[in-house]
């Protein structure tokens, strides 16, 4: 499981990094989204990978065997903040496109 | 509170397995059809296998499983069934109509015409 | 006071399905259902008039059976793959009702049933464009839909 | 015996759903048009939901139910928005 | 005398107070008020100096000390000894004369208050240098003189020359000041103190210290720049653009003397080594000679005086370099003498300029007949400058010649000194003669800007008269005029080393007298020889006229500080986003992996924990889709968005699979909302055409390849670290505490939720603040939003459909869309209450089961969103009036009020309370304040999300309105 | 029960948060009321921060540890007030009030929700200064950043939006780094509390420690982006110069937040123990390069705004280098420098706007933006008309000169004192007989060079601005625009006069920081308020 998860994180990071280095604003926003998925999974994975041990207390489970709730709480916060910033970046890229007339991150049409 | 699965009565286990697999297999067939059917309008039909029987079978399996397992009447899965049944058509309808519009706009001869003005746009 | 009693009841049922059937949740569910009913009222939707609501189970039963059947037929078609005759096609289905609820239910039924898909409704001509996967006889399809569903729907909603 | 049956059925079903998702995603990658991709996404949502329900059966827990319910109830919003975008070029008019 | 120390403080502070006072005299109509202030202040300072004299005779020292920055030995220490006294008196006395002179010199149009304000401030700074008892304090005043001299030189800032001259002066003296500071710091390092007295007492220690040389160099840099010594001399002639009183004050008597003053001040601590002699001597001699040489060929009166000043300062420097006490006496004496005659000469030059309107010696001649008195005074002063006997200049020059022939250090530099001295003396005679002869004698001047020059008012001439008289008195009867004061000064510098010397005019026939004679005769001869050439030649010395320090300096400055800087900035910096992000990612990559590399990372033995095939398949899918999203994002935006949705779904399943149902729910909801958001945004992005793929240059290819390498390495690195950290169980983490106490103390069974609303509720508070502020930003930004031209039009689909409706006679406009949404909107409307119910459900169970305020809030906003989708903005807003800002405000307040409620019970912020309530009929119901907090979260989330979505959705309506407005405008035209 | 005064620790966060919540209830048109709330809240902040500072300069090392939610240290979130945080709070409050008053003249009306964002920015800053928990730090960083995004874009216009987009993109990536770093640290140390982390460091096995270092490295990058270390700093001059004047004025402290965190964490975690001196060389080298880049940039800037932006880099570079040298006395000098340069840069940014208002180019750009992007639904922006005061130019010139003097580190203002304090600690009387190392020599040379560069650039630009164009009209300036600038400059003067006491405070602060044990102990010993009524201990179905 760890192997799969870490490979998945790696692939998403790679794609995200590639995208944020691209010149189009839309590519950047997709890249940021992918990166935040990767980072969320990373934080999540840091607590160790446990299947079917959700940190929800019930009478018959030993608390210590449950999954680590702290990374989950952190990821939850990170998701929310990621959502907010994605929305913001989106609007900024729209505004920038409106003002500069193109969707290049530097506001110019580049002759590649 | 949950019955260990080894203590399940055999009939229940078999019923769960049958419904589950039936649903799963129909879903799979549906997606295979979705992959293989040649035109969009034909492909539109395939996933409904999953939304109808796939969901249904799985729901039933789950209801049986949990009802037997907890020895209480647990049927809240039915909600999933209801919602899927009610909401999926919206997507399909809207999408089919959109596809129709796009095909017509492109002048595709395969689709029934109500001659709309031609012009091309692919927001894709 | 209670804009949508049936809805409120359904929401209460939903609440209890989710939370469990206790007295507390009955009260809570009713409150929530009541509030949600008012929320819907603020949208000012057309009120459905259910004339013969007792026919609904009959419709449901028919639909379940149809879905069951068509599931297998479509599955068969898919499994057959290339060997099957290319028999799909479009049908223009004239509908009598203009009641949006009846149309909605019809749409749900037709879309949920594998093998038929609702493409377009034309309010001027009162027609629905359908796409059918296994179209052997257009008229038979039209007749089937009219007889099996529309008649019932007209009875329920008009 | 029932354990074996149940476990086999559940893992088989999970596998099948996962496979179905892969197939749907192939269509998603292949397109050819946007509508195909959106339908594929919808299918993916349904299959994911079924996978979650199956996972719930496999673990014998009901805590995963809400996740499935959320997909069932709200998953369509994203695809509806996409469909409307295709049709009207604008999501909210 | 107990009053003594306060005299010091007053001397330093009074000028600054006066400066402020005159700065606030805004009414420029009165010319006399600022003059009165300045004169009073200066006179007071002079009086104070005189008062202080009894305290400094016989090597006594007047001290004042106040703590300033005691930790670092920087105290406000003032200290006046004989040397400081004589300098302060000089400064204040000449200051007073200059004030008087300036009263008449400055024209009606000049802003007088500003002038006197700067002048007084400068005087304060100068006095500060002189009486500082702490070397750092000295540096402070040192820099202040640079600043104020900048302001004074640039007083006529309309004049480009004044601006440039001021800037150059500031740049050079400022840099010198920095060097001086470093030098002082090094002195501090060597001696452990900044106190002047202590430093002066530890001269031997300083000279033997390994840091002596750097210290010396830095201090000399400071002193030499200030005193305009070669090779830093060129700023002084350019500073002549200043008003003449400023030149008279700063560039003859005071500021340029600061450098040599410092050298004298630190003479006991630094002098006497070969390095001292060599560095200082070389600079001094070169300056002496070059300054005099350059002075001959100046055509500007003030230019001549400026170069002569440079030369004289070179003389003083040379004297100081010798390291002999007697030379030091000569140096001090010459400083005083130079101040008197040069100040008077500057003022005379000012009068000439004032009366004739020019300072160009090619145009001036025969002024004696117009300005007899001024001419006489100027002649006496120049004679002093030339070193004619019976004038003060002669005395100190004689002492210099006497020292020059002595041997001080065995070096070629020492050996050539007598010749250099004589030559320079001759030059000085030449330029003095030239000054007098050209200006005052000869035919009537022609073509002067002002036709009839006449004598200035008497009080304008008075300062010159006074100074010339001083020159004469000192020159004729040195022993009864200057001698006691000089003795006091010398005593305080040299202490026990004070040599025997005599200030007599006549020492008999000796070599110095011979040298004087040679210089006098030689000078006259030179002048006669080149007189004709001088009358017409260009400004500047022959042969090296093109080689001007100023020009070189400016070229270098422009090259280094402008061209090179701009070039370098463009090389090592960027204003584009892509390279920035590339750097950031790269550095992040290094920062993550280098520590592992350095520490020699060794992975723990690999344990294969088994792979769930379904999960593996899922991630094959996820990876594929993220690759596809990366591939498609450029040309197929919608497809990329779909892919992104797929990846999100897989992530969400992963959360469920790995025991995080809460995360899964939240992720899903966020996924839905984000997708709709991006779709809303896609409306305003132009479509991209994949067919327009242009030719890729090799550079672009290389760049892409580099990005690819970077992306792949980041991916691998991240996988690696993720794997490493995942295979290590978290060590006795705080997690266990949460798991054990969530129910007993937090009252909830969903530990994640308890952490969010209770254990770490403060995080959640911050998080909702983030969401809120982002919503506000989005709203604010979109209020001014204007789409680009190519997305301004109605979307093509809508146009086609509208045209279709128009063309069909039986259809009304908008039928297509109405039919399109007829059936779906019914369902969507009826989903509204259902989703609300579900939101309430999610909210209520949050504390015990997956759910919570955040997911409930998102669900709620999706319910609203769906209505917008179904009916459009107008329709929805006719029916449901959501006031997102209110929701947000109430939410934030609720959350905070919950937190603050704990205060009432004496607990810290956010302490939660929990109990079961026994409700009739219902039974026990858990009631935690955390639930109230969660309610705040819920409301804020609803408000913010709706605000963002609605703000975006409103753009369509706004554009329609704009379009209509623009159409109307076009019609009007 | 705890004393009421104890709650004062959290007040710097709550007051602006409360104000921003209240502001949401007011309509955009109720501008006066909004401004009132904002000003009152900020004044309150100044007062609170002052009291906290007073407490800190008292005999105790720690003003207090605040256990949020009444949870003991490593589990709940703690706020820790020590000398450093009190200082930063005070600094932020002072800048806050200055920038806010400045904005009241016209800027606050140039877009929606200025005051809410401003208050949230202050809340975020204060939270980041106070918190003793790594993840909470992230959260408050984000609050601060989110608000700064809004403020950065405040006023709109193409330049601002483009710069804002870069700023946001860069900071989003930085936030991801932050998350990766924090989670790595949690994964290897099992705690998020800074004090607890420091206490646990010695017990961590080597292979875990490596990963922790990796985490710390990545985390450091996030802060260095904020602080503006080369090559992570290219966004900074552009963003700061594009932001509106009051915003740039308050932004002056944002880069210092990065420095603050680095200072806090290095002193706490890498002071001694297994990670002694971790990353110090990187800081030293990075600071050096940053300083060089800043110097080059200062020289190469044509526009005043960019000059100011590069000055931020100069000050960051200097501070980073000093942190890299990692010497107690030097650091206390650096703290003084931090305060002084923050005031300077803030005042400078606001001044620039006033000065450039008189120049035609600037005015034109503004007018064009207003015309092109002002909307119909924009309720009439009343151009607050400034009166051409007599002597406006003189006062502006004086302020400009003061800024130049401060930036160049010339006396008599605090720029000199701060530089002197740092330099003397390195080689002067503060370091008797310690021969300067190569690093120190480099630092000295660079510090001096930076002063020279600022001097050259400021005179060049100043002469061009004030004296170059005679036809430039006298800018219309309001008193409430000039006052904040002069207020900040007066503060630097005060800092000069009271250099001794100020330095004393810095010294104590650094000494406390240099002894992490006391910090750790204070956090660990902080007691929960007893008498908490706990819920049933039995876990089960309700």
From TrEMBL, chain A:
Listed transmembrane segments: 6-21, 28-49, 69-95
Membrane topology annotation: Multi-pass membrane protein
Coiled-coil regions listed in the entry: none
Subcellular location per the Swiss-Prot or TrEMBL entry: Cell membrane
Species annotation: Rhizobium lemnae
UniProt main location, coarse: membrane
Name listed for the protein in its UniProt record: Na+/H+ antiporter subunit C
Family from the record: Belongs to the CPA3 antiporters (TC 2.A.63) subunit C family.
Keywords carried by this UniProt record: Cell membrane, Membrane, Transmembrane, Transmembrane helix
TrEMBL record, chain C:
InterPro entries tied to this protein: Cation_antiport_E
Places the protein is found: Cell membrane
Source organism superkingdom: Bacteria
Topology class, membrane: Multi-pass membrane protein
Main location, first listed in the record: membrane
Annotated transmembrane regions: 12-41
Keywords noted in UniProt: Cell membrane, Membrane, Transmembrane, Transmembrane helix
Keyword Transmembrane helix: yes
Pfam families: MNHE
Keyword Translocase carried by entry: no
Family matches, as NCBIfam families: PRK08965.1-4
Family in the record: Belongs to the CPA3 antiporters (TC 2.A.63) subunit E family.
Protein's recorded name: Na+/H+ antiporter subunit E
Species this protein is from: Rhizobium lemnae
Organismal lineage: Bacteria, Pseudomonadati, Pseudomonadota, Alphaproteobacteria, Hyphomicrobiales
From TrEMBL, chain D:
Residue intervals passing through the bilayer: 6-26, 38-57, 63-87
Main subcellular location of this protein, as a coarse class: membrane
Top-level division of the source organism's lineage: Bacteria
Protein family (similarity comment): Belongs to the CPA3 antiporters (TC 2.A.63) subunit F family.
Membrane topology: Multi-pass membrane protein
UniProt-annotated location(s): Cell membrane
UniProt cross-references to Pfam families, sorted A to Z: MrpF_PhaF
Keywords: Antiport, Cell membrane, Ion transport, Membrane, Transmembrane, Transmembrane helix, Transport
Name of the protein: K+/H+ antiporter subunit F
KW Transmembrane (keyword) present: yes
Signal peptide (residue range): none
Keyword flag Iron-sulfur: no
Organism: Rhizobium lemnae
UniProtKB/TrEMBL annotation, chain F:
Keyword Transmembrane helix in record: yes
Annotated ranges, domain NADH:quinone oxidoreductase/Mrp antiporter transmembrane: 132-432
Keyword Membrane: yes
Compartmental location: Cell membrane; Membrane
Transmembrane regions listed in the UniProt entry: 6-26, 35-55, 75-102, 114-131, 167-189, 209-227, 239-262, 282-300, 307-325, 331-352, 395-418, 438-457, 478-499
Main location: membrane
Domain of life from the UniProt record: Bacteria
Alphabetized UniProt keyword annotations: Cell membrane, Membrane, Transmembrane, Transmembrane helix
Membrane topology: Multi-pass membrane protein
Family: Belongs to the CPA3 antiporters (TC 2.A.63) subunit D family.
PANTHER family the record matches: NA(+)_H(+) ANTIPORTER SUBUNIT D1, NADH DEHYDROGENASE
Name under which the protein is recorded: Monovalent cation/H+ antiporter subunit D
């Amino acid at each position: 499981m760890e192997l799969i998860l870490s490979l998945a994180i790696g692939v998403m990071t790679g794609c995200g990094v590639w995208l944020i280095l691209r010149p189009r604003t839309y590519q950047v926003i997709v890249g940021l989204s992918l990166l935040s998925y990767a980072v969320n999974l990373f934080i999540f994975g840091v607590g160790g990978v446990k299947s079917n041990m959700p940190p929800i207390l019930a009478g018959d489970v030993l608390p210590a065997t449950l999954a680590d709730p702290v990374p989950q709480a952190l990821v939850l916060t990170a998701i929310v903040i990621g959502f907010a910033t994605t929305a913001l970046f989106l609007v900024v890229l729209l505004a920038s496109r409106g003002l500069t007339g193109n969707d290049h991150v530097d506001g110019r049409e580049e002759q590649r | 509170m949950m019955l260990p699965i080894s203590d399940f009565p055999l009939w229940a286990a078999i019923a769960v397995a049958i419904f589950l697999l039936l649903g799963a297999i129909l879903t799979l067939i549906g997606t295979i059809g979705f992959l293989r059917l040649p035109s969009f309008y034909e492909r539109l039909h395939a996933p409904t296998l999953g939304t109808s029987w796939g969901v249904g079978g799985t729901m039933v399996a789950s209801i049986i499983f949990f009802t037997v397992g907890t020895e209480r009447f647990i049927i809240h899965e039915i909600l999933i069934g209801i919602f899927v049944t009610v909401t999926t058509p919206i997507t399909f309808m809207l999408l089919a109509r959109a596809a129709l519009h796009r095909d017509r706009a492109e002048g595709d001869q395969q689709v029934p015409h109500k001659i709309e003005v031609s012009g091309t746009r692919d927001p894709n | 006071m209670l804009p949508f009693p049936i809805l409120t009841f359904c929401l209460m049922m939903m609440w209890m399905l989710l939370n469990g059937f206790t007295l507390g949740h009955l009260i809570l569910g009713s409150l929530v259902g009541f509030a949600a009913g008012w929320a819907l009222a603020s949208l000012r939707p057309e009120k459905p008039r259910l004339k013969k609501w007792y026919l609904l189970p009959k419709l449901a039963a028919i639909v379940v059976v149809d879905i069951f059947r068509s599931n297998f037929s479509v599955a068969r078609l898919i499994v057959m793959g290339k060997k099957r005759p290319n028999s799909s096609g479009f049908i223009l289905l004239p509908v009598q009702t203009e009641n949006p609820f009846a149309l909605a239910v019809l749409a749900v039924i037709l879309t949920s049933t594998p093998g038929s898909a609702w493409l377009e409704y034309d309010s001027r001509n009162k027609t629905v464009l359908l796409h059918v996967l296994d179209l052997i006889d257009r008229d038979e399809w039209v007749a089937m839909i009219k007889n099996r569903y529309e008649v019932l729907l007209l009875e329920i909603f008009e | 015996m029932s354990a074996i049956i149940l476990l086999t059925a559940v893992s088989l079903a999970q596998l099948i759903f996962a496979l179905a998702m892969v197939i749907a995603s192939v269509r998603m990658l292949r397109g050819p048009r946007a509508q195909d991709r959106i339908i594929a996404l919808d299918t993916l949502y349904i299959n994911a939901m079924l996978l979650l329900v199956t996972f719930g059966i496999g673990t014998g827990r009901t805590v995963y139910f809400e996740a499935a319910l959320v997909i069932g109830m709200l998953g369509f919003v994203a695809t509806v928005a996409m469909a409307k975008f295709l049709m009207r070029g604008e999501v909210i008019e | 005398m107990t009053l003594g120390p306060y005299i010091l403080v007053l001397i330093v502070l009074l000028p600054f107070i006066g400066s402020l006072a005159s700065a606030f005299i805004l009414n420029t109509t009165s010319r006399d008020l600022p003059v009165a202030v300045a004169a009073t202040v200066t006179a007071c300072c002079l009086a104070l100096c005189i008062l202080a004299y009894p305290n400094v005779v016989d090597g006594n020292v007047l001290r004042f000390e106040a703590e300033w920055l005691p930790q670092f030995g920087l105290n406000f220490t003032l200290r006046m000894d004989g040397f400081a006294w004589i300098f302060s008196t000089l400064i204040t006395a000449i200051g007073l004369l200059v004030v008087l002179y300036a009263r008449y010199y400055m024209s009606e149009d000049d802003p007088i208050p500003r002038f006197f304000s700067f002048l007084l401030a400068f005087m304060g700074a100068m006095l500060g240098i002189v009486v500082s008892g702490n070397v750092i304090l000295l540096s402070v005043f040192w820099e202040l003189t640079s600043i104020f001299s900048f302001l004074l030189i640039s007083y006529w800032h309309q004049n480009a020359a004044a601006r440039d001259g001021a800037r150059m002066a500031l740049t050079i003296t400022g840099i010198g000041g920095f060097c001086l500071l470093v030098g002082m710091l090094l002195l501090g390092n060597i001696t452990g103190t900044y106190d002047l007295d202590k430093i002066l007492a530890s001269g031997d220690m300083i000279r033997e210290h390994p840091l002596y040389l750097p210290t010396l160099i830095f201090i000399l840099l400071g002193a030499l720049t200030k005193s305009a010594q070669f090779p830093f001399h060129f700023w002084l002639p350019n500073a002549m653009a200043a008003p003449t009183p400023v030149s008279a004050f700063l560039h003859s008597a005071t500021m340029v003397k600061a450098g040599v003053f410092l050298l004298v001040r630190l003479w006991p601590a630094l002098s006497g080594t070969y390095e001292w002699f060599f560095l200082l001597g070389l600079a001094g001699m070169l300056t002496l000679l070059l300054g005099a040489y350059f002075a001959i060929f100046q055509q500007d009166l003030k230019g001549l005086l400026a170069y002569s000043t440079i030369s004289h300062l070179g003389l003083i420097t040379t004297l100081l370099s010798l390291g002999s006490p007697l030379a030091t006496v000569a140096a001090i004496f010459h400083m005083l003498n130079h101040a008197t005659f040069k100040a008077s000469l500057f003022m005379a030059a000012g009068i000439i300029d004032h009366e004739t309107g020019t300072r160009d010696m090619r145009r001036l001649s025969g002024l004696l007949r117009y300005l007899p008195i001024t001419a006489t005074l100027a002649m006496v002063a120049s004679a002093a400058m030339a070193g004619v006997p019976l004038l003060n200049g002669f005395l100190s020059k004689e002492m210099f010649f006497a020292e020059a022939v002595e041997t001080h250090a065995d070096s070629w530099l020492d050996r050539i000194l007598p010749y250099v001295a004589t030559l320079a003396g001759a030059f000085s005679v030449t330029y003095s003669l030239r000054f007098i002869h050209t200006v005052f004698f000869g035919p009537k001047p022609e073509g002067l800007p002002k036709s009839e020059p006449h004598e200035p008012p008497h009080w304008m001439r008075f300062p010159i008269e006074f100074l010339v008289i001083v020159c004469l008195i000192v020159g004729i009867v040195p022993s009864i005029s200057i001698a006691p004061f000089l003795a006091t000064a010398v005593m305080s510098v040299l202490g026990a080393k004070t040599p025997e010397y005599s200030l007599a005019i006549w020492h008999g026939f000796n070599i110095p007298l011979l040298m004087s004679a040679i210089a006098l005769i030689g000078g006259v001869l030179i002048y006669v020889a080149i007189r004709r050439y001088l009358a017409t030649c260009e400004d500047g010395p022959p042969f090296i006229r093109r080689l001007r320090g100023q020009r070189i300096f400016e070229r270098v400055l422009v090259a280094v500080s402008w061209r090179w800087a701009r070039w370098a900035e463009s090389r090592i910096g960027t204003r584009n986003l892509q390279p920035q992000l590339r750097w950031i990612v790269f550095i992040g990559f290094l920062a993550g992996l280098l520590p592992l590399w350095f520490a020699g990372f060794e992975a723990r033995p690999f344990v294969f924990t088994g792979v769930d095939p379904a999960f593996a398949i899922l991630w094959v899918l996820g990876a594929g889709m993220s690759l596809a999203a990366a591939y498609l994002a450029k040309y197929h935006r919608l497809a990329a968005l779909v892919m992104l949705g797929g990846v999100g779904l897989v992530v969400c399943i992963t959360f469920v699979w790995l025991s995080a149902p809460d995360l899964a729910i939240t992720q899903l909801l966020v996924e839905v909302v984000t997708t709709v958001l991006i779709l809303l945004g896609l409306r305003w992005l132009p479509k991209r055409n994949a067919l327009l793929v242009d030719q890729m240059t090799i550079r672009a290819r290389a760049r892409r390849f580099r990005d690819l390498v970077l992306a792949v390495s980041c991916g691998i690195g991240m996988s690696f670290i993720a794997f490493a950290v995942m295979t290590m169980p978290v060590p006795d983490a705080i997690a266990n505490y949460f798991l054990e106490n969530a129910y007993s103390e937090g009252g909830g069974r969903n530990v994640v939720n308890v952490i969010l609303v209770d254990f770490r509720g403060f995080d959640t508070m911050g998080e909702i603040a983030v969401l809120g502020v982002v919503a506000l930003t989005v709203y604010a930004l979109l209020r001014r939003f204007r789409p680009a031209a190519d997305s301004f039009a109605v979307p093509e689909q809508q146009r086609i459909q509208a045209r279709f409706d128009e063309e069909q006679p039986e259809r009304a406009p908008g039928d297509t869309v109405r039919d399109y949404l007829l059936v779906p909107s019914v369902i969507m409307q009826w989903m509204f209450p259902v989703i609300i119910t579900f939101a309430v459900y999610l909210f209520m169970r949050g504390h015990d089961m997956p759910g919570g305020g955040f997911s409930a809030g998102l669900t709620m906003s999706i319910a609203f969103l769906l209505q917008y989708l179904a009916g459009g903005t107008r329709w929805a807003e006719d029916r449901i009036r959501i006031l997102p800002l209110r929701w947000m405000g109430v939410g934030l307040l609720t959350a905070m009020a919950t937190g603050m409620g704990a205060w009432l019970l004496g607990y810290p912020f956010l302490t939660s309370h929990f109990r079961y309530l026994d409700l009739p009929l219902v039974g026990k119901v858990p009631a935690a304040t955390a639930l109230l907090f969660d309610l705040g979260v819920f409301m804020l989330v609803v408000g913010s999300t709706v605000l963002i979505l609605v703000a975006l959705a409103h753009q369509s309506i706004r554009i329609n309105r704009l379009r209509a407005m623009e159409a109307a405008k076009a019609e009007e035209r | 029960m705890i004393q009421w005064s104890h709650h004062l620790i959290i007040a710097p966060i709550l007051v602006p948060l409360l104000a921003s919540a209240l502001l949401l209830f007011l309509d955009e048109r109720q501008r006066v009321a909004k401004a009132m709330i904002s000003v009152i809240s900020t004044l309150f902040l100044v007062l609170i921060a002052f009291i906290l500072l007073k407490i800190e300069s008292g005999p105790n090392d720690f003003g207090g540890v605040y256990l949020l939610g009444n949870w003991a240290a490593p589990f709940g979130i703690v706020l820790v007030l020590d000398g450093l945080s009190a200082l930063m709070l005070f600094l932020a409050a002072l800048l806050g009030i200055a920038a806010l008053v400045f904005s009241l003249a016209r800027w606050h009306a140039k877009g929606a929700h200025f005051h809410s964002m401003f208050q949230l920015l202050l809340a975020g800053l204060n939270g980041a200064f106070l918190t003793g928990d790594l993840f909470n730090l992230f959260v408050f960083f984000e609050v601060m950043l989110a608000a700064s995004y809004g403020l950065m874009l405040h006023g709109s216009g193409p330049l601002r939006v483009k710069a804002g987009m870069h700023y946001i993109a860069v900071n989003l990536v930085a936030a991801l780094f932050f998350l990766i770093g924090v989670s790595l640290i949690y994964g290897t140390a099992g705690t998020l509390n800074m004090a607890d982390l420091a206490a646990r460091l010695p017990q961590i096995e080597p292979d875990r420690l490596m990963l922790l270092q990796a985490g710390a490295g990545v985390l450091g990058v996030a802060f260095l982006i904020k602080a503006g270390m080369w090559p992570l700093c290219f966004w900074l001059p552009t963003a700061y110069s594009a932001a509106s004047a009051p915003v740039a004025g308050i932004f002056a402290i944002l880069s210092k937040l990065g420095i603050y965190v680095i200072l806090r964490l290095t002193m706490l975690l890498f002071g001694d123990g297994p990670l002694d001196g971790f990353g110090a060389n990187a800081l030293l080298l990075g600071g050096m390069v940053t300083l060089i880049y800043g110097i080059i940039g200062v020289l190469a800037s044509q526009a005043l705004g960019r000059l100011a932006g590069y000055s931020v880099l100069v000050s960051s570079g200097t501070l980073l280098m000093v942190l890299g040298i990692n010497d107690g006395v030097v650091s206390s000098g650096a703290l003084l420098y931090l305060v002084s340069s923050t005031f300077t840069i803030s005042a400078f940014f606001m001044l620039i706007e006033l000065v450039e208002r008189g120049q035609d180019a600037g005015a034109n750009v503004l007018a064009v933006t207003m015309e092109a992007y002002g909307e119909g639904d924009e309720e009439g922006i009343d151009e607050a008309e400034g009166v051409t005061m007599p002597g406006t130019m003189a006062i502006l010139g004086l302020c400009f000169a003061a800024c130049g003097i401060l930036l160049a580190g010339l006396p008599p203002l605090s720029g000199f004192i701060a530089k002197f304090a740092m330099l003397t600690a390195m080689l002067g009387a503060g370091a008797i007989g310690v021969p300067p190392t190569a690093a120190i020599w480099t630092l000295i040379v660079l510090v001096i060079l930076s002063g020279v560069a600022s001097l050259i650039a400021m005179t060049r630009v100043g002469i061009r601005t004030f004296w170059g164009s005679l036809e430039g009209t006298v800018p219309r300036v309001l008193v409430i625009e000039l006052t904040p600038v002069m207020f900040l400059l007066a503060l630097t003067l005060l800092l000069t006069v009271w250099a001794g006491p100020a330095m004393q405070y810095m010294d104590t602060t650094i000494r406390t920081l240099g002894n992490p044990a006391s910090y750790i102990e204070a956090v660990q010993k902080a007691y929960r308020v007893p008498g908490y009524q706990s819920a049933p201990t039995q876990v089960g179905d309700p």
